[in-house]
Structures are given as C-alpha cells and as structure tokens.
Amino acid sequence: MRHSIPFFTAAPLVAVLLAGSALSGCGVKVTQMYVGEKLPPDKVAIIEPMDVMKFLQGHGIRTYIAAVDGQTLGEGAAEVLPGRHTVSTAAALFMGYEITTFVPEKPFTFDAQAGHTYRVMGHFFVEPAPIFAIFSDSEETPPTIWIEDKESKEVVAGEKPPQ
Q1: Residues 66, 105: contact at Cβ < 8 Å?
Q2: Ramachandran angles phi, psi of 16, nearest 5°
Q3: CA quadruple 8, 67, 159, 98: dihedral, nearest 10
Q4: d(Cα 91, Cα 49) in Å, to the nearest integer?
Q5: What CA–CA distances, in Å, run from 40 to 36, 61, 81, 89, 95?
Q6: Strand 77-80 relative to strand 71-72: parallel, antiparallel, unpaired?
Q7: Residue-level pLDDT, tens digit, the chain, 163 residues
C-alpha cells in the first residue's frame, strides 16, 4: 500500500534529506555516544545511516538512527563503545518529489566490536511504471531494514531480503 505525504507538507524534511544527500560524499556527522574523552578509532565502533538516492530512476531510500541505547542521536552516525547496543532505526522512501512511505522507528540490538563500522541498511523494490503511464502508481514492496558490518557485509541485526 502506498502512503503519500504531500511535498509541501514534507518540504522541510525533504530539504534536509536532499542537503544531507548532497553532502554525503563529504562524510557524515559522527556523534560520540559515550561519556569521557574521545577514544581512537580502534577502541570504538561507528553506526551510520545509509543514503541511496536514484534520481534518474525516480526513487530512493534513506535510513536514520533515531537513538542509541535510548539516547537521541539527532542526525548522522553514532560512535559507541564496544558491547551490546540497542539502535532505534527508521527509513524514508522517496518517489519523485514526495516521501511515499516513512518507516517508523524499529529497534535492533547487537554486539558492536571495536574498530568496526556498522551501517543501517534499507531496501525496497519499485516496479517501474510504463513510460507513458505518468499518472499511474508503481508497485512497491514493503521496506526492510537491517544492520550490517560495513566491511564484511555480515548482517548483525535484522534480516537482509533476498536479492
């Protein structure tokens, strides 16, 4: 089922998302989520969102980290100590210039290892509409969110859909 949010209603959110997309090549803001002095990269783990915008195909997905261990993140990635963490995630799906679906927060718990980077992944499939069917709806699958080790691609929380 397709849920649309009119562009003018979601314009501030879309502007922030598009600005974040444009800056994604520059790196993401990383927030220290532990007390004390900043530790070296080999002593902490990073949990980061995913941003896949396919403007030429007219759709995209962006994942978010809403909170880590109950502490609100705000935006960007989280730097955490090794150990068990609960990460509240969300995702937004885009079709054209509107958010068609916003996936509400979903918590995942996993054991983070020092020196590793984890990515909150999201996937959905959109069946393209015929080229002249501008006003017809495309079919989309329900979105799936999971967390994987960025380097090894091992799923550490949730379930990756078959592709």
Answers
A1: yes
A2: -65, -45
A3: 0
A4: 9
A5: 12, 31, 11, 26, 40
A6: unpaired
A7: 333 333 333 333 433 444 344 334 446 799 999 999 999 999 999 999 987 655 545 567 889 999 999 999 978 999 999 999 999 998 887 776 666 677 778 899 999 999 999 999 988 765 655 554 454 455 556 678 999 999 999 999 999 988 6
